[in-house]
Amino acid sequence: MTSTLRADIYRLTHGIALYITFAIMIVLAMSEILTDAITGVTVTSGNANPPSRSTQPLNGATVAQALVADVTQIVFFSIPLFVAVAMAIFSCGAVKNSLAMGMSRTKLYFSALALSFGLCLLLLIVRLGVGTLTATIVNGTGDWTGTLVRTIFQDLGQQVVLLLAFTSIGVFLSFAIRNTAAVTGIYIAFAMLPLIVLTILSMSHPGLAKYLDYDLMTLVSSMGSTPGHAARTLALGIGYIIVTTLAGLAIFRRIEIK
């Protein structure tokens, strides 16, 4: 598994998908903060959760909390990365070669999953770091109270689980379908359609709005908006990771590698 991880990392670092993805995300993060600073957009600091853009100037503390409360960008920026990891091993013949050398399919799957997890977390760290640093340079550090730091880490922990769930879904689709366009389309549809459908239906049937609390995209875009939701969030995220991993392994063990 270690040798497979090294081979996957070598292939990624010698391609362009990794660098283009991170470069675009960094530019967007910086430009968003700079634009908001120039136009005077504000956010709520302190204990508000999730932050709303209404009361306090942008600074390192308020931006860090806002970035943790909404990690929607990471859900979509992770697409080219898990595709580059999981799909590339089929197109370049790595799967066939590894199996011929005696490596089990379980190890191959977990190798791709682990690397995809790592890249997703790296995206989150870079986005949070770049955004916070940019806001700090522009408007100062802000007020890093103990309560704020605790809230940020609590929300961050939940967001990590949800992002890993999305990544696990992406890796599952990559191994199950093995077609870049189809994987991308289904992944985006899975992320967006439940939110869109439930939002539209809840306009005429308000009772359906409660089901948004169980939608992954709703949770990653508004962390902390529902009091006491941590247990549900963690259960949903871990549940998706377990189910998609088991399903992906079951499918991968049965497909024919050509």
What features would you highlight for this structure?
mainly alpha, 12 helices, globular, 75% helix, two-stranded antiparallel sheet, 258 residues, single chain
Q: Secondary-structure element order, as H and E?
A: HHEEHHHHHHHHHH
How helical, in percent, are the residues? over 70%
| Strand proportion | under 5%
- Low-confidence segments, ≥5 residues, pLDDT <50? 44-54
Sheet having the most strands: 2 strands, antiparallel
Arrangement of strands in the largest sheet: 1-2
Based on CA atoms alone, the radius of gyration comes out at 20 Å
Q: How would you briefly describe this protein structure?
A:
75% of the residues lie in helices and 2% in strands.
Please, could you describe this protein's structure?
The chain is an all-alpha fold. The chain has one domain (2-254). Helices cover 75% and strands 2% of the residues. The protein has helices at 2-13, 17-39, 60-69, 72-77, 79-86, 88-91, 94-100, 105-139, 146-177, 180-204, 216-221, 230-254, and strands at 42-43, 56-57. The protein has a two-stranded antiparallel ribbon. Helix 1 packs across helix 8 (105-139), helix 2 (17-39) runs parallel beside helix 8 and helix 3 runs parallel beside helix 9. The longest helix has 35 residues, at 105-139. The chain is globular. The chain starts with a helix and ends with a helix. The relative contact order is 0.14.
